[in-house]
Amino acid sequence: MCGQHGGDDGQSSKKLIARVVLPENVRPVHYNIDVVPDLEKFTFAGHCTITLDVKQATDNIQLNAAELTWKSVKVIQGDATHEIDVASIVSSYNQKDEVATISLPSSLSVGEATLVTTFDGILNDQMKAQEPLLCALFLLFILVGSLTIMNMLVGVLVEVVGVVAATEKEGMAVTAVNYQLREAMDHLGVSHDAKALLSKKQFCDLLAHQEVAAVLQEVGVDVVGLMDMADVIYEDKAHDMKTFANPNADQIAVNLTPTMSVNAGLSFADFIDVVLNMRGTNPATVKDVEKQARVQKNATKHLLDAMLESIRADLDQMRAEIGKIQDESGSDTESKEEGGGTGRRTSKQSLTGGLTRCLSEESILN
C-alpha cells in the first residue's frame, strides 16, 4: 500500500524494481496532503488523509515513510474509529526498507476506509530515487524548465524596457522640439502664448525660416511636405472648429470656405502636435485614413462647385447674347419684305429653341 504494487515479472523486473513491494490487501485511492514548511528550521508539519480500498480483511496497514515523526494516527471505517498508538509504529518501523506498519486493534472489513495522520519531517537534499536514470531525467527537467522560465522572463523584461525606452524617447523629443521652437519663435518675434494663434501666412513664414526648418528636420519632419499640407491642416482645423460650434451638423459633408480656412488659427500646442504628427517615422492610423478621405471629398466638391459656377457664367452670357439678337431682329422686322420676314421668324424660332435647351441643361446641373 502507498508504494509499488504487483508481483514479480521476472529477472528484468527485478533489475528495474529495487524497492520493496507492499502487499495489495489495502490499496490507496485518494491522497489529501497539507504541508506547512519551516524554512528557518528546515522542517515541515504535515497532515495527510488517505482514502483506502480494503481488498481483504486485515489487521495491519503498511506504507512507505522516511524521516517522519508521527504525531497522531487513526483509521476510520464506517462508524468505527481506531486510534493507533504512535509508539507501536515507531517500534515496528523497518529502517532498511523504509516501511511503517500500522497495527490495528481489530481487523478491517472489506470496503472503504480512511487513514488520517499528522506528522513532522525534515527538509533535506537527499533524494530517495532508486533509479539513476529517472533521477537524471528529473534533474534535466528542472534545468530545462528553469532555463525556459528564465528566457520567458528575459523576453518580457526586454519588451517592457523597449516600451519604456520608446515612451521616454518620445517625451524627450516633444520636450526638445517644444523648447527649440519657442526659442526660434522668440527670435522671429512670433508669439507662442496659449491664447495666440498662428495664421496660415505666419505658419508658412515660420516654416520657411532656416532655424525652424533645421529644428524640424532633426526630428524627421519633411518641411517642404509640411508647407504643402498647410491648406489641408487649416481646413482640418476649420472643420474641427465648425463641428465644435455645431456638434449636430453632419461631420462628413462640411462646406468649408476659403475665409474659414484663412481665419482658422493654430495655437502653439496645436502647432507642436501637427509637427510631431508629420514625422516620417509615424505609422498610419485610421484617423489619418479618415482625414485623407475627407480632404479628397472636399477637394472634389470644390472642383465641382467651380465647374458649376463656370457653366452658369457661360449660360448667363449666352442668354444675354440671345436677348440682344432678339432685340435687333425685332427692330428690323417692319422694314423688310414679308418673304424675308418669314426667314427671320424661322431664325428667331431656332434661337428661342436653343435658349430653351440651354435653360433646361442649367436646371439639370442644379
Keywords:
366 residues, alpha+beta, Immunoglobulin-like, five-stranded antiparallel beta sheet, 11 helices, 7 strands
Report on this model:
This protein is α+β, with helices and mostly antiparallel strands. The chain folds into three domains: 11-124, Immunoglobulin-like (Sandwich), CATH 2.60.40.1730; 176-282, no CATH class; 308-331 and 340-365. Helix content is 54%, strand content 19%. It contains eleven helices and seven strands. It has helices spanning 11-16, 86-91, 132-188, 200-208, 210-218, 223-228, 230-245, 258-263, 268-277, 286-331, 338-365, and strands at residues 26-38, 43-54, 58-64, 68-77, 80-84, 99-108, 111-122. The strands form two sheets. A five-stranded antiparallel sheet has the order 1-2-7-4-5. Strands 3-6 form a two-stranded antiparallel ribbon. α3 packs antiparallel against α5 and α10 (286-331) packs antiparallel against α11 (338-365). The longest helix is centred in the middle third of the chain and has 57 residues, at 132-188. 11% of the residues are buried.
Short description:
The protein is an alpha+beta fold.
Structural category is alpha+beta
CATH topology of the largest domain: Immunoglobulin-like
Distance between the termini: 99 Å
At CATH level 2, the architecture of the largest domain is Sandwich
Topology:
Elements (H helix, E strand, L loop, with lengths): L10 H6 L9 E13 L4 E12 L3 E7 L3 E10 L2 E5 L1 H6 L7 E10 L2 E12 L9 H57 L11 H9 L1 H9 L4 H6 L1 H16 L12 H6 L4 H10 L8 H46 L6 H28 L1
Antiparallel strand pairs: 1-2, 2-7, 3-6, 4-5, 4-7
